[in-house]
Amino acid sequence: MRELHSFGWYAKQLKGHLPKKAFRPDPGKLLGGAAYLLITTAAMLGIVFLSLPLPVNLLLSLIIGMSFAAMGFLGHEILHGTVVRSPFWRNTLGGLFFWPLCTGPRLWRKWHNMSHHVHTQHEEKDPDTWLTDTAVRKNAMLRLIYRLPISVRAFFEFATQTVMFTLHSLRMFKTYASEFKSNAAPALWLQLLLPWITWISLLLIAGVTNWIFMYLIPLLIANGVVMAYISTNHRLNPQVEINDPLANSLTVTVPKWVDVIHFHFSHHTEHHLFPAVNSTYYPLVKQKIKEYWPHLYHEMPMSKALIALWKTPRPYFNGKNLIDPSRGEVYGTLGNGLTESGESASTRAQ
Ligand SMILES: [Zn+2]
Ligand SMILES: [Zn+2]
Fold first, then answer.
1. Centre of ligand 2 from the C-alpha of residue 114, in Å
2. What is the pLDDT of residues 34-70, one digit of tens each?
3. Which backbone phi and psi does 322 adopt, to 5 degrees?
4. How many angstroms is it from 168 CA to the middle of ligand 1?
5. Closest to 228 (Cα-Cα) out of 303, 155, 300
6. Which residues contact residue 177 at a Cβ distance below 8 angstroms, ignoring those fewer than 6 apart?
7. Which residues face 329 on adjacent strands?
8. Distance, CA of 192 to CA of 200 (rounded, Å)
9. Which of 20, 143, 248, 252 could form a disulfide with 121 if both were Cys (CB 3.0 to 4.6 A apart)?
10. Of the bound ligands, which one is closest to the alpha carbon of residue 82?
């Protein structure tokens, strides 16, 4: 693998090219958040009070689900401190916009800001990186799962994306809860339980059928949308010892209007270089990265990245490869044989 550099090494060289306001909080983004809250509330009230036909209810579920996902992207940005500066408002608003996905702001900052961003794609320290071949071999259940043909596994991996963010969030709570000081425990638990209490109360108030359209279907849609980004952000890249965003992250491309409604979440390499920069400036960061290091930068259309994800196996093998344990076939990762058109020739493991 090529010589790696930390994200600070890249950021230092590009910092001077960004305007000062890129580093200031941008509370204007809350207008977008308010619009999502209004749309969601109106759609929920419509489902409860208007006795609409099934296709209209499904359309409203889709709108709510897309709004939940977008609110999650806004919550992510708020909790990086790029929207409001005050810790109280950062946590309150971050928690509010993560409410549909039931992830508390304290847990998120520990899991995402302090662990995933600091140790991206580190085999042991990144809570979001995928398993290694060694971990699969040590676990009987995983060995069994990975004996299934790759297409069957890909199907289940894609199907479970509709619940994966919620499940991973609960797993992260279990992982990190013990690392908080005892005086932080009540807030941590409240931030976990209050969103769930809200959504379960809604079930009791609105009834099962309405609740399915108001929350359950939207939650599955929101999980699917956020996981489409999260699963392509790093899983086609190698695992690395040095947190080099140009090696360990992928920027996906989506239509411009999607970037606007998703707060440029597609620009993930740029985000890992400058997590504290207002995301509106990520296209400028991208332009500069492409000027400085065009040969190191990875970018793929979202559709191609998802197809590549489907076609390549998941466990990592020697950090820079992916292996299909059932057939012993080894595939490359980005920068190590996997091309940006999503093709990777497979070889037999030695
Ligand atoms: Zn990431
Ligand atoms: Zn982040």
1. 10
2. 999 999 999 999 999 998 999 999 999 999 999 999 9
3. -120, 145
4. 14
5. 303
6. 107, 185, 188
7. 324, 348
8. 13
9. 248
10. 2
